[in-house]
Design brief:
Blueprint (H helix, E strand, L loop, with lengths): L2 H5 L12 H14 L1 H25 L9 H7 L9 H17 L4 H5 L3 H5 L5 H35 L5 H31 L3 H30 L2 H19 L6 H10 L4
Length: about 270
């Protein structure tokens, strides 16, 4: 046998997706029956219920039949809470995804069960993909349940059914929310593969989330202020001042003000 043939790497045999089904079913059942899932579900419902309840109290006073009431449940920011349902989900979904995936792999290694799993006819790709799909399905179950609760509460409190366009947009919002959770689930799963300690992987995932949730908006604003031309930086301020001037003006404003408002795109 020539040396080149002996040194050639061994090719994979069979499909790389063999074994995804059993891994998915096992992990999915573990997630749904675990105490962690119950705590995360209570966390999601508790933080999502306050904005929705106050939004519904406000929307019950709206009499405009053409307004998208069910869509405003997600975007309205009540004064009592100070946060909309969409903003609450922006806080809830990453935490739930990180909670489901930060110990998906390193916990198996610490319990000495990873070697026994990989000794079966299953590739590491199938193991990781099965764990990811199980976590994503668990996250989808929680978000679909929350979406149905919000939809049912809206029908009960507002006394009218949603229109077809509102249902379609709500389903689109649900799909985007699940995909957003899948991104953070993949990040937490990556840290679970890199680090042997579950505490380290959780801290790294939470640190990355805090960076994008708190620090990145401030850094982006500072970078924009430093690099943007002065005309672009001053445009929002001029727009706000001009809108205030038009509100305070009695009668028709003068010609230069009207011309400036048309240039800035301010409605008179």
């Amino acid at each position: 046998m020539p040396p080149s043939a002996a040194a050639a790497p061994k090719r994979r045999e069979g499909s790389p997706f063999t074994g995804i089904g059993p891994v998915f079913v096992k992990e999915f059942s573990d997630h749904l029956s675990s105490a962690r899932m119950m705590v995360l579900m209570l966390f999601v419902i508790a933080f999502g219920a306050f904005p929705v309840a106050t939004s519904l109290q406000t929307l019950r006073q709206v009499v405009d039949p053409n307004s998208y009431l069910f869509l405003r449940i997600f975007t309205l920011e009540p004064e009592q809470v100070g946060i909309s349902f969409t903003a609450a989900l922006n806080f809830i979904i990453p935490l739930m995804a990180i909670g489901l995936g930060f110990d998906a792999v390193n916990s198996e290694f610490n319990r000495r069960t990873l070697s026994r799993v990989l000794s079966q006819p299953i590739y590491r790709d199938a193991l990781l993909l099965g764990k990811f799909l199980a976590g994503l399905a668990t996250l989808a179950v929680a978000l679909v349940a929350l979406w149905l609760i919000v939809l049912g509460a809206g029908i009960l409190m507002l006394g009218l059914p949603p229109r077809e366009v509102e249902v379609a947009r709500g389903i689109g919002f649900l799909v985007v929310a699940i995909a957003y959770g899948g991104v953070w689930l993949a990040v937490s799963l990556l840290f679970s593969v890199i680090f042997r300690s579950t505490a380290t992987s959780a801290l790294c995932a939470l640190g990355l989330w805090l960076f994008f949730f708190i620090l990145w908006p401030q850094l982006a604003s500072a970078i924009f202020t430093a690099l943007a031309p002065s005309e672009i930086r001053c445009r929002p301020v001029v727009h706000e001042v001009l809108s205030d001037v038009l509100r305070r003006t009695k009668g028709t404003p003068c010609g230069p003000v009207v011309e400036l408002a048309e240039t800035m795109g301010v409605r008179i």
